[in-house]
Amino acid sequence: MNRLLPITTIKANGVEIAYELHGKEDAPVIMLIHGLGMPMAAWPMEMVEQLVDAGFRVLIIDNRDQGRSEKFHHLPIPNMIWQALKLKLGLKINAPYPLTDLMKDTLGVLDGLNIEKVHVVGVSMGGMISQLLAIHHPERVMSLTSIMSTTGNPKLPKAEKHVIAHLMSAPKSQSEEDVINYHMKTWQLIGSPEYPTPDGELREFVKGLLDRGMSPAGTTRQMLAILATRNRYQDLSELIMPVQVIHGTADPLIPVAAGKETAEAAKAKLHLVEGMGHDLPEALHDKICTWIIEQAKSEMAAPEYSQAI
What we know:
By secondary structure, this protein is α/β, with parallel strands linked by helices.
């Protein structure tokens, strides 16, 4: 299993979304959705392989505006300084598209591939999209795993200032080396302090992301979609499928309080990982995959819905 598969796209919600399917055709499906600015290459293939070896079919996608999926460069990006000020004042953010559109993209992929139900697993922004899929289309979600994500409550602790400062900056130039170094610095800042990735491995990981396709403008549009999304606490409290939350205690981007609140809202099983930051370090692949597999295989993970919700 490798990343050398031909690029496959499907029209979903009117958008060309790139996807990959791994595993046997008749196996239950786990859908993996990654976070802000991340193409599908951010999912470690070792994790995909573990899930396939456990008897699942794994569906991974490039969210709109990233990777090989359709870009929305025709949509104007509003003045970011003004948007930041409105955020502080509690005013409505102007987003080129709402986060629910990314959720509708995932639903469109399932429809196009004739996949009735999935176990959905989302990281960071992908966790938010996964939550929205479970909230708005619970009949399609057998179980939900929300990793290093949040309810969207604006009162929760914010990212550490030095991380925000870096994310608001840009590479020194658009040379390949400067772009690689910038993204390596990003992962070094948000990564797991107890499970650091060696520089050589991190460099190869970043090159894989860039080869797949990363769009700075697309990342900005996705960020605005996140900021414009309302608090999901009440909606999460009404979920009835099995839910679990995985969050690192050392996450500098989405602090652990956000994971705790997500678990509280959804009445979910909470897995706190000491020393884990805002990444998926190799040392934790087995642990995280085990939690995903155990929930997906539990007898409770396939409820029958007697009526539309």
